[in-house]
């Protein structure tokens, strides 16, 4: 929609940035921390770029005060970070680790000292390996009680200081890559039946945790963060429009409907039943999901790219279970689901070196669709550009990142004019970090960290990029000076 004048961002808008424990903390076995599924998975040959691990990461565990001070100098309003389950419960259940609880006490207090709102992600993919060993983790219904116990421990310990909570980060990604693509723990391929049951267990864990939080702190704000890729039909052919509808039900609404409505899309469930892959409900599950849906306060959105959807016949392209993790542009392959859809490249949009489509308008599309379908406030919990940054004479010039963020913020401002209730915008990421499968060469941060793929290389010194100073001005002017 077109508006003659913009209202701009709300006065209390939370300009932020984000990270995940495994990607920044390091200290993988420090102070009683247990082993996570990622600590083990990265040691499987060929799973990560140049066998990179998060053992040291960017050493945020020991340098959090330095990092928070940099955030304060920038004027950051909120910092979204995750808590490592294995620091709190080294074995996933059983005895709690006080040293782990103390670390996050210290981090939260340091943020509050500078007036930075802590936004806590309960689960950002690093499950205790002990639970995988005990009962295969998310594949077992037992995970629900252990997850809720862990989450409730966090609520009780930090709820007096933490207002914003995110239960799950990108549930669609960690389950899809874990049980369909083989690229995340536990590394399984095309196990559709388990994939949908795993997601149901995660949804029940989310639901019970939301209910537990609201019983303890009714005024707390809670939601889940979904990796949202809005879709465009390839052209005007009806079969491509229907392919888009199939894609949306199975790849987008399947999760967001569960969070916001407490149910799965009817067409998606009918399709899964035809394959024998529909999740098994226990008595009371439907009521739990609906109750949690009535209590959530926002939809979290991790937005990076849109996709194009085209009809794919039953003998069409499937998934080859690969992705571009080298940064060699043009090496990603078209993926699809035979009989439903495939995702060709969008020739009208540029891409990153990792073949991710750059589509600033897509972030506005996310907000519009969520507002229209769910009428929920929105937290942009991730948005950013991974790129090859170079440190030269103590400086990092990253005009490409400034341009990327500028154009996305412009579209986000238009979403606010459209009536979307956007509460926060968190860039990914604050410092450079381990990019899961892509190593340390793919840099996202405002702050450059001197380290390479070799675990022992680099000083880990922090350097402010040009984008650091740019975002500082954006925050100072509440998004008016871009």
From TrEMBL:
The active site is at 382 (nucleophile). Keywords: Glycosidase, Hydrolase. GO terms for molecular function: beta-glucosidase activity. One of its GO terms (cellular component) is cytosol. GO terms for biological process: carbohydrate catabolic process. InterPro entries: GH (IPR017853), GH_1_N_CS (IPR033132), Glyco_hydro_1 (IPR001360), Glyco_hydro_1_AS (IPR018120). SUPFAM superfamilies: (Trans)glycosidases. PANTHER family: ARYL-PHOSPHO-BETA-D-GLUCOSIDASE BGLC, GLYCOSYL HYDROLASE. Belongs to the glycosyl hydrolase 1 family. This is Aryl-phospho-beta-D-glucosidase. It comes from Faecalibacillus faecis. The lineage of its organism: Bacteria, Bacillati, Bacillota, Erysipelotrichia, Erysipelotrichales.
